[in-house]
Design brief:
Helices cover 41% and strands 13% of the residues. It has 266 residues and is of the alpha+beta class. It is built from 10 helices and 7 strands. The radius of gyration is 22 Å and the shape is globular. The protein folds into 2 domains: 211 residues, 2-Layer Sandwich (Phosphatidylinositol 3-kinase Catalytic Subunit, Chain A, domain 4); 41 residues, no CATH class. Strands 1, 2, 3, 4, 5, 6 and 7 form a 7-stranded antiparallel beta sheet that branches. β6 and β7 form a beta hairpin.
Length: 266
């Protein structure tokens, strides 16, 4: 809990999405029977985490608290029925239209996906498997380069972080939510999902599919995307795959509840 609270304080805009997903998760909507007694529910876990954040950093706690309004309004909008059966557009809630700034990051893949130190991973992997040593393997060791033999040039973005410097988990200046377009487009399908436009701090408009699937589970779709990201990491580590630029197209999925969520428009 202490580690998670420190991560949330360091990255409040990213962590707010999953904190409020846990806090407002509707367990009554679950089809499968729940265990008789769980160790701790999602709701209680999120409450305890927010309490830890409040005790450690009041300023970051306020930022996270401000994000809840946007989260709840998006959840309500996803569940809201169109004004008429054949409507193609609908107005979004006034609460969302009045938003001009926030601490919540734009829910796109580049903002929500943590960065991994590729070169450190490769060097440490060789050190643990080939080189017998008792020294720590979580830091870059230049002596390993000689043992590894000749290596291809590595892009500057993948160079190892010098000892003593922290590796950035997320982008230093992520795009934040700065507003919403006043109208949402209603897509032609059974569940009537809505296409909404969110304005970023870079003045660009990002489109998302706001989906409510009563019989589905967007968390499962999110796990498929996580698996695709893992496959891309494996492809990046293979020389032939890099030559052919092989990768799976991925996108961000942010669950708002069991059946509702935001899907990045690609």
């Amino acid at each position: 809990m202490i580690v998670l609270s420190k991560i949330a304080i360091r990255h409040p805009g990213q962590c707010s999405w999953w904190i409020y997903h846990f806090l407002h998760f509707d367990q009554d909507a679950m089809k499968k029977p729940q265990p008789i007694k769980a160790a701790v529910s999602r709701h209680e876990f999120a409450k305890q985490l927010i309490g830890k954040i409040m005790a450690q950093d009041a300023n970051e706690y306020k930022k996270i608290l401000e994000c809840e309004k946007i989260f709840l309004e998006l959840k309500k909008l996803s569940e809201k029925a169109p004004p008429q059966q054949n409507s193609s557009t609908m107005e979004i809630p006034q609460a969302l239209q009045k938003i001009t700034s926030s601490s919540l990051v734009m829910p796109i893949e580049e903002n929500l996906s943590p960065q991994l130190p590729n070169i450190n991973f490769r060097i440490n992997f060789v050190q643990t498997c080939i080189v017998q040593t008792t020294s720590p393997i979580d830091k870059f060791n230049p002596a390993n380069i000689k043992k590894m033999g000749p290596q291809s040039e590595t892009p500057a973005s993948e160079q190892a972080t010098p000892e003593g410097e922290e590796f950035p988990a997320f982008k230093a200046n992520p795009i934040l939510i700065a507003g919403f377009l006043p109208e949402a487009t209603i897509m032609i399908s059974k569940e009537k999902p809505k296409k909404i436009g969110i304005i970023g701090t870079n003045k660009q408009v990002y489109n998302f599919l706001l989906k409510c699937d009563k019989y589905g589970d967007l968390r499962k779709e999110q796990r498929f995307i996580d698996f695709a990201v893992l496959c891309n990491k494996m492809l990046e580590n293979d020389a032939e795959s890099r030559k052919r630029n092989l990768r799976l197209r991925t996108y961000a999925i942010v669950p708002l509840s069991r059946s509702t969520g935001l899907i990045e428009w690609i």
